Amino acid sequence: EDEQIVAEIMERRFFPDQAYKTWEGFHFAGHEIRITEATDCYGAVVWPSALVLCYFLETHSKQCNLVDKNVIEIGAGTGLVSIVASLLGAFVTATDLPELLGNLQYNILQNTKQKCKHQPCVKELSWGIDLEKNFPRSSCHFDYIMAADVVYHHPFLDELLLTFDHLCKNDTVILWAMKFRLENENRFVDRFQTLFDLEMISNFPSLNIALYKAMRKDRMKA
């Protein structure tokens, strides 16, 4: 079953006939999505975890209805997840580091303009930095936080956890796809579970990717 679903997920990706083209194509939410990548930067490449999350959003659109929902994607990279969420009716804020915003904005504009109910926005978010200033708790409420492959070999795991904590209200749902590569991933999951109830909703051993749903532990007390 894993291999069959993985094959279906990967069939959503296609490549241009001409080798000189710099975009990569995908089929999600009834649209052909063209993503421009930058191979010299981890954050500007589409990783399989993003495909897994996009596939889930599309195939579970009834139980995970994004229409008119307020969604933020952290570590949006090329913007594929944000684009799919927008095409499915969400109001999306796609965030990443300042050096990635140009390519992110380009991809989102090219793939969502006049196609979405709500035009998504792109915003800088450096994990753990100026969170209250840029995303004040009093006025920012997200129904969903989405993340694909945000945990890898980098020194900012403390800041990542702080960012999840800041953005997540008691009724916010986190959808997080992660590829397990190193022991860092397991340690981060353990720390994540000190703040959030974590449920694995899909698992793809052939890709070494798990898809999680999470909510705040203290939500029932509020």
UniProtKB/TrEMBL annotation:
What keywords tag this UniProt record? Methyltransferase, S-adenosyl-L-methionine, Transferase
Residue ranges the record marks as coiled coil: none
A Gene Ontology molecular-function term? methyltransferase activity
- What InterPro entries does the entry give? Methyltransf_16 (IPR019410), SAM-dependent_MTases_sf (IPR029063)
Which Pfam families did the record assign?
Methyltransf_16
Single GO BP term: methylation
Which branch of life, at top level?
Answer: Eukaryota
Question: By what name is this protein known?
Answer: MT21E methyltransferase
State the species of origin.
Answer: Quiscalus mexicanus
